[in-house]
Amino acid sequence: MTTPHPSPATALPGLRSASDTPGTPVDRLRPRRSCLAVPGSNPRFLEKAQGLPADQVFLDLEDACAPLAKEGARHTIVDALNNGDWSGKTRAVRVNDWTTQWTYRDVITVVEGAGQNLDCIMLPKVQDAQQVVALDLLLTQIERTMGFEPGRIGIEAQIENARGLVNVDAIAAASPRLETIIFGPADFMASINMKTLVVGMQPPGYGADAYHYILMRILMAARANDLQAIDGPFLQIRNVDGYREVAGRAAALGFDGKWVLHPGQVDAANEVFSPAQEDYDRAELILDAYDWCTSEAGGRKGSAMLGDEMIDEASRKMALVVAGKGRAAGLKRTTEFEIPEA
Q1: What does the pLDDT read at residue 18?
Q2: In sequence order, which residues have a C-beta less than 8 Å from that of residue 322 and are 6 or more positions away?
Q3: Given 3-state DSSP classes, what are the helix, strand and coil percentages for the chain, each rounded to the nearest 5?
């Protein structure tokens, strides 16, 4: 016997309302196990990315584009979004940060040209909430001018320095458009003078996890505001084992996904940030068993035994998270709940 459960949107962060239309649901929950970075100035890479099994693809106008290539890359990205096949993928564009002269034109060109085929704008090097508010206002003006649905395009905020981390709570609450908080390790490591040149790896001489506080700080701000938390890149692109180790650290804490810089990292990210089949099946059984034991037919009990484990409301909440991530990853059940004999 199986019983209906809430949709994954109720089990994972991400259901928010558009700023222009309070009360109108905008489903911000998108699978982001693997977030593939693609240089916006490279048509060949843009075409190849469409066939890769990444959950999200973000077309980059920032670090991946040389200054002289940025203007042309805007139009290349518009063409790729409008004419490419991005089926099944979240489509994002990373613009330049507000301290540069490129940001406003990045947003206007891309959103006016391809806003109907764009899911999110990623804003790098966010240092305070007003930078998110400014992007929200600009997006709203473009949507109204172009006749687009107000508030549909989301925002992803990237934390890349000490000031951004100190202000992350306010940043995470700055706009209903926000969908994710992203850790940018390379710039962050430079901003605090961390003693290593290998992005994402532990600095020599420190016996504990040097990133634990940073990751947890971002995760708490994200979860307090119903946002997803995404880990940044691992630059040793051929070291897949190293990627799995770093990704596993973030996944264990509760992060929803991680950037990938190379096709060889995509499968690793999708695997690490998906529940194991055994865990997914167990979560679904817990939900079924709890539904049964709290029902009239099940005796309206607040707890029950599932095998050797007692389950209750807290168990249900934990199972909702795992089941929601499993459903979002496309996992299928291999077990069914059986009503216990009286």
Answers
A1: 43
A2: 275, 279, 280, 282, 283
A3: 45, 15, 40
Rounded to 10 deg, the angle between the 70-83 and 103-114 helix axes is: 20
Instruction: Calculate ∠ Cα 193-197-203, nearest 5°.
Output: 70
pLDDT at 342: 62
Q: What are phi and psi of 193, to 5 degrees?
A: 60, 40
What's the pLDDT score for residue 197? 66
Quote the distance between the C-alpha of residue 112 and its chain's center: 24
244 φψ region: left (φ > 0), alpha (ψ -120 to 50), beta (else): alpha
- Length, in residues, of the chain: 342
d(CA 8, CA 318): 13
Give residue 207's pLDDT. 82
Regions of the chain short of the pLDDT cut 70: 1-27, 197, 342
- Which residues have C-beta within 8 Å of that of residue 312, sequence separation ≥ 6? 290, 302, 303
Both structure tokens of 39: 């240089």
